[in-house]
Design goal:
By secondary structure, this protein is of the alpha+beta class. It has one domain. It has six helices and six strands; from the N terminus they run H-E-E-H-H-H-E-E-E-E-H-H. Strand 1 (about 20-25) and strand 2 form a beta hairpin. Helix 3 (about 55-75) packs across helix 4 (about 100-115). Keywords: Signal.
């Protein structure tokens, strides 16, 4: 766990002073809805974390921490902590999420950060979808770099709950990108298959 998140975990133990409520969804295709409170203490932590960003790159890293933190807060009052990366490892978990759930939640989080005025280099953008292999439909949240006029995918679907989101240029994500931890076993299997061909 990143050291930057340790102060937040201490804040979670404090008595709540509620500031804002955010809506999230889960159970695939946003079939279940819930909301959670962002406490004053958590809000102060998020503001401080984002204020430390002094470039678009460092702000994207701060946004990744913020998205991860907001998910931790949401999991205090919902079963989403049971979500596993992708769709095939969730089983019947009550808090399972598909990419529709993840992209909706991340977009909610990004818009919240934007509304607070904490983003200096980016704005929240509408979610995007891809289908590079026709049947491989996938959605993501999107962050827009204002100066570079470049969109970035902010994708929490690939990894188990609690892991930071994958943040990559949207143009790369659109080609079917998967992070190494997800795609490497596929590549190894593919390579060994090729190696066994006479």
């Amino acid at each position: 766990m990143p050291r930057a998140l340790l102060p937040l975990l201490l804040l979670l133990a404090l008595p709540p002073a509620f500031a804002d409520a955010l809506n999230i969804c889960y159970h695939y295709r946003c079939s279940r809805q819930t909301s959670f409170e962002v406490t004053d203490e958590a809000q102060a932590w998020l503001a401080t974390r984002l204020a430390r960003a002094d470039s678009p790159q460092s702000e994207r890293a701060a946004v990744a921490d913020a998205v991860q933190t907001l998910y931790f807060l949401a999991a205090q009052d919902s079963p989403i902590w049971q979500d596993r990366g992708g769709n095939s490892h969730d089983g019947p978990a009550e808090g399972r999420m598909d990419c529709v759930d993840h992209s909706s939640n991340v977009t909610t989080f990004l818009r919240y950060l934007d509304r607070q005025g904490w983003l200096k280099y980016h704005h929240a953008a509408p979610s995007e979808w891809r289908a590079p292999h026709i049947l491989d439909l996938h959605y993501t949240g999107v962050l827009h770099d204002v100066a570079a006029k470049q969109d970035w995918a902010v994708d929490t679907w690939f990894k188990d709950f609690g892991e930071p989101p994958v943040v990559v240029p949207l143009s790369v994500w659109m080609t079917g990108y998967e992070p190494p931890a997800v795609s490497e076993p596929v590549k190894q299997a593919s390579n060994s298959k090729e190696g066994s061909t006479p």
